[in-house]
Design a protein that fits this description.
single chain; 213 residues
Amino acid sequence: MVGVVVVDDHPAIAAGVQAWCAEASPPVRVLDVGPTPAVAWTGPGADADVVVLDLHLGGQAPAYADLRRLVDAGRRVVVYTLRDDREAVLTCLDLGAFAYLNKVEGPDHLIAAIHAAARDHPCTTPTMAKAISADDRADRPRLTQREIDVLVCWFACESKEMVGRKLGLSVRTVTSYIDRARIRYANAGRPAPTKAALVARAVQDGIVALDDL
């Protein structure tokens, strides 16, 4: 069973997320709930597969630093917040958030994002799609055509072995192309540590279309 820790300082929201997780199919186990990111670092929350993080905790400043620390530690974070402006969405994705949802999106989208994060499957929520489609920033890395071919094939496959069979490459070569793409994004200040994050970058940059995922 997928385990999550919920970081939210609104008791009603936290209780709602707990209820949705319990009613999900398959159910999601909420390991702990708390008003600060400390709950994700200690106790049962430290072992959670996914961190559900509110962007505003006890103040007006967005919790970008907390998100960065969680991502840098290898945690898969689903941001669940009231903000839906493009700047906040793209900033969180650039910091490595697995998915971003506005709290009006409800249980179906949140549970789907949690399951996708736990399995490292691509996930594009309505809030993400809106922000990504309007992204016109210039800091886009230049990928080679072969890197693009490998990425597009990987997004459509369940494993690198399948990509290798389709493109006539070894798994090591497939991994090398993917790693090069990650390095290019990291050097551009837009890290993509997970497959879902790399999908988000590719959509942002027009490498693949949302309809193709």
